Amino acid sequence: xxxxxxxxxxxxxxxxxxxxxxxxxxxxxxxxxxxxxxxxxxxxxxxxxxxxxxxxxxxxxxxxxxxxxxxxxxxxxxxxxxxxxxxxxxxxxxxxxxxxxxxxxxxxxxxxxxxxxxxxxxxxxxxxxxxxxxxxxxxxxxxxxxxxxxxxxxxxxxxxxxxxxxxxxxxxxxxxxxxxxxxxxxxxxxxxxxxxxxxxxxxxxxxxxxxxxxxxxxxxxxxxxxxxxxxxxxxxxxxxxxxxxxxxxxxxxxxxxxxxxxxxxxxxxxxxxxxxxxxxxxxxxxxxxxxxxxxxxxxxxxxxxxxxxxxxxxxxxxxxxxxxxxxxxxxxxxxxxxxxxxxxxxxxxxxxxxxxxxxxxxxxxxxxxxxxxx
Length: 374
Known about the structure:
mainly alpha, Ferritin, 14 helices, flat
């Protein structure tokens, strides 16, 4: 197969994957406007795929079966359990890569690829708008008057990965540094166990404080929105109409819809909070739940490098602990790369390399301190 047809085949697979992903997200999305956007992008991806189908057929290349890749199935599995917003950052990254790829082909004289690149850039803008809760234009105009609006929360996937990696890397570096100082195996083990409890407790307290403060802030924003509805319903109706216009309604439809919503103050506040702030008034976050989750993820990660010291001593324990830590970190880095559509090997190697650097520094410092104190 020629290099050119290899590229066409990969483009076809990417477009089919994109279509399957957006079709799946549309089925999972509860917001009908967002679901419609996903379906529109899916239709465009199918249309892009037909470009490469025609070229491959003309070149006499047999077409592969049309079924989603394992990456798409994994992303839809996550979206089903965590919501479509949880996977949007990874989807946007994929759109960026596709747009850049087609743009490069377009510069080489491929007019069809250039047209696809333009559409991919539009898809990226739509997806970024979803992640931000509303369009930049609408939010910017509203924020000129209501500057107490603030950004939303981070994704749960990132938080879980960060908690586990932080626990594993910090405690691995700790026990390796202590082992490098030449202390007794018992002291290394005690240090590792203390690191688990101290680190997990610190993470839990910090997360509890952070989420509790954020919850108070968000509750305050909801209260301010409620006051706005009571004191200036006309202005709030104008803001809603602006948002609905950005979502595709005509000026007349947007104004009529906003006026109907404002007739019920409770529904009006709920809608404004969701549309303007991107918040769910019924789910402002649980400080205790966040603290417990942070404690568990950190403790799980921090426990792994300590396990070998329960059964082994000296250099052998350090070697097995390092192997276990690198294996898990490499796996996590590879998984993140896989979900993001980049090279799993590159993602895993980056994680392992950074961990090895941190461990080498702490081991060296421990060795120097051990010699100096000894």
